[in-house]
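Q: Got a minute? One more chain.
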Amino acid sequence: MTVEDQTLFEQLRARAAQDPGGIYARYDGAPITFGDLARHASSLAAALRARGLGKGSRVAVMMRNSPEALAVIFALAREGMAWVPLNAQQRGEGLRYILEHSAPGLVIADAEHLMAIGACGAGIEPERLVVHGASDGHAPLQPLLEGEAGAGVSPPRAGDLFAIMYTSGTTGRPKGVLVTHRMMQRAGEAAGLVAGAEPGDVFLVWEPLYHIGGAQLLGLPMTHGIALAMIGRFSAANFWSETRRYGATHIHFLGGILQMLLKQPPGPLDRSHGARIAWGGGCPPDVWTPFQERFGVAIRECYGMTESSSITTFNVEGVVGSVGRPVPWLDVELRLDGRTIARPGERGEIVVRTKDPGAVFAGYLDHPEATAKALRDGAFYTGDLGSWDAGGRLVFHGRMTDSVRCRGENVSAWEVEHVAAKHPAVEHCAMIGVAAEIGEQEIKLFVKPKPGAQVDPAEMSAWLAPRLAAYQNPRYIKVIDEFERTPSQRIMKHKLSARRDDCWDRLAQQGR
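A: Always. Here it is, folded:
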């Protein structure tokens, strides 16, 4: 059996036996060796078994990146327990829903999250809590990492459940994606392809492990000989200094990360940070070249979803605006109306088929309607729009549902946001559809100004008018201080106000 065919903990155990003092990762500079990580994970696994948990048990984990969080994930992988990662920013109804829906037998959490867990109303009994940090009377995590490993159990198979990863829920309730050990293997292999990982490379890890973008890196130190440089959280102001401090050769991006970095004032670290590759998803075409030229890194773009092992296509050719070609184990089709195959240049729904049984998910937890909608005819219908360029590479055009029907036309949010973001005073923006007084929908644009700048809605509307089609020009504009975001920095559009009386109204200003 090759290391790529082993489950995550088996990969770690094999590497720890060969090189116990080797560096798996550094957390804020402190080393985490293969041997220590395997020992702590094995100790915790034995403690969980002693609590009556076993293969198939669900364990919710609400922890920020830390050495202890790594040990928890590997312990669950060792025992074949299902990891239910919880967003550390989640609160209230959203947190309650996931805890009740996933029904974990145990919750492991940082002490700072205990109040949120208790206040959300999920009814997690104290005996179902293990706490990292000041435990306040709850069972502490640390002693469980330092006990005896025990004999262990037979390892899970590749097709067994590894995690239940809830989608970010940018447009509605999150769905629990059933992620197998095989899917995590493929996610790691794909990340290695996108990033061009080589032995000795160092990957900066700012993204939370509770997001697939962070979790997909867990196996790379074993399979690709790289090391992880883990930091507590993303900071645009400190990003390049942390990159240099930890000797990172690769940085990861999602959502608006590249734009945030470009909007930082120029500095001496712009070209002396030491990284050579920026890889990830969501690089706008007009950001691609300026980012490469300013920071001296190569952009490696990809596209994918948790449901299809994180990464579906990748672009290592450097063609600006493309998300590239499928990974070797997946095929991609573009379909019109769910049936007709799109021709080159036509936009169609991205449909993913697998050549490797198990590389595409089997469904959502306890959500048969969503599963039936997503999985049809042996394929995963993503709900995303794409087209093929002249060279046979995929171009991503956003979510099919992230559009507005206005004056008889379908208006893509991506297209409007792409233009509005170029306004010199705009840092970030987002578009939604709101109910129209007559007809279909109207467009409402939310704008966050750059630090120190001001956005006048009337001036903004006048600036947009010659740059957008008449039906694309937002009727409503609302200036805000900040957006609520997912861990990958995507704007949570379902939390934006759909009211029409809390914003500037173009037609009201024009006397209708």
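A: The two ends are 71 Å apart (CA to CA).
Q: Perfect, thanks.
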